[in-house]
Input
Amino acid sequence: MMLLLAPLRMMAADVDSVYVSTPKPSAYDKRVLRYRKHWEALIPTQMVIQNAGNMGVVSVGMGWNYGKCCQWETHLLFGYIPEHQSTRGKLTMTLKENYIPWSIDLKRGWSIEPLQASIYLNTVYGHEFWKTQPNRYPDSYYDFLSTKFRLNVALGQRITWEVSCNEHKIAKSVSLFYEVGSCDLYIRSKFIDSSVPLKDVLGLSLGVVVQLL
Amino acid sequence: MAFISDTHGWYSDLRDEVDHLNGRWDVDFVIHCGDLTDTGTSKEYEWARDILHGLRYPYVALIGNHDYLGTGDQAYQVLYGPVDFSFIAGRIKFVCLNTNATEYDYMAAVPNFDFMEEEMTKDSARFDRTVVVMHAAPYSDQFNNNVCKAFRRYLDYFPGLMCCVYGHDHADLVSSIYNDDLLFYGIDCAEHRNYRIFTFTPYGYEVEQVYF
Output
């Protein structure tokens, strides 16, 4: 009899009191949260358009910014080299890492990033290009890395316009940047013969970064 | 006439070479035996072209193996035309042959025997002697060495064949590669700062190696 009454008493007490406890997430819930958080980190936070830069006439792609002050950026770009006088147009792919250490606030939503330092690796698609020299050549015949992959470095600056919170439609902010860069082959040419004109070794590139998230 | 070769990368040396040639009085034209560039980029082609355009003589350039890298061979053809070509000067035909078979993985007609056959008889009324020019010599790492002997046979059909000239080896060697009476003149690279002057006379030719 006592055993039957006990639950009834407890029920009465529950009705009277305010229930304040928060449900404790189960191990499964935690795992799902963690899982989502990790995959969410892969959602691109930026959209990027860049011209030139040894990656074609125009490249488009996505980017991720991260770090304490979002000072790091990784861009994945696909570019197009028009046919010009060659046999066909070509596709390129670029993986680019940017470091933007400072941002100077100019008020009214504008800011300037006085330095954007980049290093990037790119590849061009086509049977003419090889990653390492094919077997038909004797060992270390062409004493350089590859005709398919280029390592590039660039320095530049950017200006950013922050879209105010109540005007958000597509983007949080839009940045325009320029950079001056070169690739391993051109730097090598300059080292072999310093008379190679510096202006020919360096290239100007312009671009837009749209901050989506 | 002057033969230069393998100028890739050494633009200052090429500039000096061009200046030195421009200072001579005994040159009618210049043949570059190939390897204008080091990695076949358009920029390297332009750098080499801009310097070579400073020559006060006409010049032709053969394609070298380095000029093929990437799509360099396409840039070469835009700038200099077909990879096999010939011209006649003073009743001597200069047959310039592409011999970079390794660049095609031996899958193309290199050397092009059809072209050679055509050139043996084409414009035969306008020439009595022949000089054959190539980038890589027979038995080198670029030549299709399976056809070295066939190539030698074909050379015999050129009217009044005087000699062969090649680059590629960065050496000034003169040898009879086939151990017969046909001489092959190697043209040194620009870095070694020398070139060769060939003076053709009605009775033969003289060769001078010039350092600058």
